[in-house]
What does this fold into?
Amino acid sequence: MLYYNSDCNETNEMKILDCTIRDGGLTNDSYFSLDTVRAVYQAVCRSGIDYVELGYRNSKEILSPAEYGPWRFCDEEQLRKVVEGIEPLNTKISIMQDAHMAVPKDILPKAQSVVDLIRIATYLRDMDKAVVLARNATNRGYECTINIMAISQEELKEIEISLQKIESETDVQCVYIVDSFGALYPDDVHRLIEIYKKNLKNKKIGLHFHNSQQLAFANTLLGIKEEVHFIDGTLYGLGRAAGNCPIELLVGYLQNTKYDILPLLEVIQKEILILKEEIKWGYHIPYMLTGILKKHPRKAMSWMKRSQKDDFITFYKSITDKC
Amino acid sequence: MLYYNSDCNETNEMKILDCTIRDGGLTNDSYFSLDTVRAVYQAVCRSGIDYVELGYRNSKEILSPAEYGPWRFCDEEQLRKVVEGIEPLNTKISIMQDAHMAVPKDILPKAQSVVDLIRIATYLRDMDKAVVLARNATNRGYECTINIMAISQEELKEIEISLQKIESETDVQCVYIVDSFGALYPDDVHRLIEIYKKNLKNKKIGLHFHNSQQLAFANTLLGIKEEVHFIDGTLYGLGRAAGNCPIELLVGYLQNTKYDILPLLEVIQKEILILKEEIKWGYHIPYMLTGILKKHPRKAMSWMKRSQKDDFITFYKSITDKC
It folds into this structure.
């Protein structure tokens, strides 16, 4: 019939990474219960998703454990509580380090860890720190990526310089385009993928989108077509502000492949939906406005906690020059 | 900077049509208050949107006025109550006729009507009726389009035959691609636009998407790039099942053009948000599932009214062979 049908070849190389707990942790200071994290881990394994990211390993000397939940630090002991008794099947475990909030010494040698992949999230200005953390991770035996955040704010020339630095100074397998503000249109994504391909001869490309303008899934589909290697999603889109690309949409699109949507539906039903009572992710006008205005969503997140959260006009005026 | 910036040239030809009341009426049997419809009309006029569709003009001999609200029939007298005292600026008024539920005699001569545009919605199987209604509308002095519904279910060859019939037998200005099920991926849209362009030498192309898979806005952006003429949106995406392309996203994308987002934000805040208490549009897993499975959303809409609406697994199994 009419449809563009995804076929299995598309996934021979491509990997899906679920970062529900990690990115969702930006909405609740990483305070998920162990039961929730285990349920997510088990569902993601059963669905055949390639990687699951269980949180950050940021430094307790920089962030206070009194202010953040356990998934902001992901102690090895904590991670072992997650995986205990659950069959991983083919799913690998990822954690993230923020370049400006993490230190190399928190990473154990790979042989002592359940972690497979360490992703280094960085702003361009912190690229030197990111390179140090990435070299540390690969030297200790892990797979590694560098994820360039807030890329919509950066000059193309500066992006190219950083890509060349990553290419020549690290052994990471992949570099991500991270649309932290949900500001990128498909043509922007296309242009960035071209720039990444031009500057990265020995690294793959990854994509992580926010959904401020309901473009996270569509931008990811574009990336699949342009043969990127890593794509990120989260259960029901749970993530900062408007959230991320819903992983069930990715698996729905790839429904003739190895992935199974049913475990994802089940865990959304049992564990994720109820979080909506506390966390306001999804399509909301304040998040949309920071997306179209190419701004960090923090003001929208703060606005969404107010009783007058639906006074869109006042919010719009507060973040623009209009008055 | 980095972004793909929409520029004014893109809108020289393109027209935006707001169909909040018409498509939203499929969620509440067209029972909006006159005050709500007037507020929507005024906001759409002030924002510079090109057309506003206030409902259907279907036949009272086929549908009972006891079962449907006034916006399913759009009596001329009712429409005059909407526009009275409101400055239309440059916004034209549209109504829709369903090919299988409307009759020619309900259309007054243009000189006696506030309506500018009549859109004929049809399944391919009712194309003969659609052509009769379209010829009636243009003969009586209106602008007219034919909107091919549920196009994801049709064979390409049959679509081409119908396009050729419309081209040769009518004076409509535009033929729409209508993704009633929210099943089309961007590559499907691209292919359909190619087929429309190949078969329509003297008609423009229009796009109307449903948002089951969060692709309505992205698919519309693709259409803008491929130079379609008419694009549809609704306030906050209000519309059947998952709803439509949010018109505020379109205007956000086109923010350097003649359109103004503020009146849209204001009416969403004052009139549309409150409807969420009664109407479950937006991204919900049952609607998503009918989208990825390429099915009519009616089963999902019915499911969403049950107390067990969040039992996704049972719903999934009920609409597939899996048990």
Remarks:
- The first strand of chain B starts at residue 15 and ends at 18.
- Residues 48 and 258 of chain B are 7 Å apart (CA to CA).
